[in-house]
Amino acid sequence: MKLQVEWAPCELCGGEDWExxxxxxxxxxKLPGEFGVTKCRxxxxxxxxxxxxxxxxxxxxxxxxxxxxxxxxxxxxxxxxLHLMKLGRxxxxxxxxxxxxxxxxxxxxxxxxxxxxxxxxxEIGCGTGWLCALAQxxxxxxxxxxxxxxxxxxxxxxxxxxxxxSDSVSLPFKSSTFRLVVLRHVLEHLPSPRQALSEVYRVLRxxxxxxxxxxNAESLGRxxxxxxxxxxxxxxxxxxFTPETLKHLMEQVGFQRxxxxxxxxxxxxxxxxxxxxxxxxxxxxxxxxxxxxxLLLPFLVANQQGEVLRAWGLKEG
Length: 317
Description:
This protein is α/β, with parallel strands linked by helices.
């Protein structure tokens, strides 16, 4: 079947007056089609236009899509972290060190000021379920949800957590159910992030939090590489958020006390274009050349120019 594309109105303001920044293709899986990144002239939101219609969007997520695979490296990392947590409990004197190392990936998106466990935790777009596994180990009652049958199967078999196969358009939960809902690198994939966040708002309890993680379209990497920036990931990423547009969307939905932070998610972002990942000498050179990027970390965080944005919003009671 011939690929069908569409132009969508701005998700933030509903406008249809676009500035076309550039045209690109699927550089990750080499699937056919040409897609644009456009900027709304009214509010500045960046969106993929034209983009595949909903009927064709799933074809750009092949069976070997890494986030849904049992070979996902995050499974190995999580098994290591769970082992460290158990060591921390068995060896109290070294427990703090073990705990700090083991919970680092979890605390990036669920910081301590959100509170400890003992509540219902939902991850939308859970993939192989590694974050749910860490949440469960830390005392949360974790539930996962993903649109991929393969990812749901991997998550259930690997961690034994309850995972539902569904999309985010109409969540299969009662209103005011969860204390915390997490969407990690999900919002940019959705045709309507506003609709998804509205559903999240519905299923959150009063004084519950949403935690988001998305690529940062104002990052240093994007400014250096422009159309060649890896994280455009056309056409799977339908929306490209900046700190301003992400906060605007969350407040439109109704979230209060919105917090936005930037993280230096890819310390080697300035070297990955020239040096392959699988070649050992090249990996060493990437590490060496990436050291100056670490020195930029305080500047990038202060100016919200890291490769990833993390955001939190409260549903006030």
